[in-house]
Amino acid sequence: MNAGIGSDEIIEKLNRDHRIILEELLIVEKSLASKNPDEISGAFEKLLEVLKTKLQAHYLDEKNVVFPELDELPTKWPLKLANLDHDDMDLISSIAENHIESAARFKDEKKVFSAVETATKLIEFIKKHFRLEEDLVIPLCRRLNAEQRERIMKSLKGNGR
Q1: What is the pTM of this model?
Q2: Is the dihedral of CA 154, 158, 160, 161 positive or negative?
Q3: pLDDT, mean of each 10-residue run, the chain (161 residues)
Q4: Per-residue pLDDT tens for 7-51?
Q5: How much of the chain, in percent, has pLDDT values that exceed 90?
Q6: How many domains in the chain?
Q7: Is residue 2 part of a domain?
Q8: How far is CA 108 from CA 46, 101, 113, 122, in A?
Q9: For a disulfide at 39, which of 34, 66, 116, 120, Cβ 3.0-4.6 Å?
């Protein structure tokens, strides 16, 4: 095993994912705030793309690679909170995706306005979720041993991420 892999590499990977996703969500937020129907429509498309690609890939990396290793640590309550939040985010994202897709398809003004509210609340929830991870999960990553860090990085690289 390569004992040279540090927890900082894993933390940087998770934080980099957060930054990339948040940068894209900031663009979506600005477009949602406009009154231009074309910008709003483009924002819906961009948000759905981010949810279905970047956020989903990040979520699966955490759920299938990082969290199982963290689950071996003696202190698990922060991980349980983060898992509960992941479950909430999965459900909320699914509902929001359906709502936004419906509004984008039918272009009914009331549905669009409602979908803008839903999208805005979803973006706020994602931001809150990332802050929770940074407060609870990131400190746990610092407790991983060299073997665990190696397994995580190998798996993340195997996922092409």
Answers
A1: 0.83
A2: negative
A3: 63 92 96 89 92 90 87 75 69 77 72 86 90 86 89 82 59
A4: 788 889 899 999 999 999 999 999 999 888 889 989 999 999 999
A5: 27
A6: 1
A7: no
A8: 19, 12, 9, 20
A9: 34
**Amino acid, res. 104:** A
| Any domain includes 1 | no
Q: Looking up tokens 């949602």, which residue turns up?
A: 32
Cβ–Cβ < 8 Å for 60, 156: no
Q: Give the relative orientation of helices 7-33 and 37-50 as an angle to the nearest 10 degrees.
A: 160
CB atoms within 10 A of CB 10: 23
Residue with tokens 């991870």: 133
Helices 109-141 and 77-106: angle between axes, nearest 10 degrees: 160
Sign of dihedral through CA atoms 102, 104, 107, 112?
positive
- Is 97 a member of any domain? yes
CA distance 92 to 35: 25
What's the CATH number where 73 sits?
1.20.120.520
